[in-house]
């Protein structure tokens, strides 16, 4: 497999996970709106974004690294995961510290629901 084919395969798999995560975040927002209110739905969607945005950046960097070499891919995997965790933490801190009217339960509900996209992608093959 050429590096370009490898990068394409990495990107396709990542896009599948990202689509599932975004769909689950939307579902969480609908559920939060039904059971709480519109504000909770927005917070659930924000929680989903806390999951999806860092994952998308991570996937993009992995696909770029796959074009270079297997060593570059390994380094990007390790560093990218670290950057993703730091970014998720920073987005949660930002949400908790900067925005009024926070619905922490809805924010976490959206995040936890969206992160299930990883596991759902494994089941849907």
Outline the biggest β-sheet.
none
SS element count, helices: 4
The assigned structural class equals: mainly alpha
Oligomer: single chain
From the N-terminal CA to the C-terminal CA, the straight-line distance is: 21 Å
| Average of pLDDT | 90
Topology diagram in text:
Blueprint: H1 3-35, H2 38-68, H3 70-98, H4 104-123
Helix pairs in contact: 1-2, 1-4, 2-3, 2-4
In short:
By secondary structure, this protein is mainly alpha-helical. It contains four helices and no strands.
What features would you describe in this structure?
There is one protein chain. The protein is mostly helical and 125 residues long. The longest helix has 33 residues, at 3-35. The two termini are 21 Å apart. The chain has one domain. The protein is 90% helix and 0% strand. The chain is elongated.
Keywords:
single chain, 125 residues, mainly alpha, 4 helices
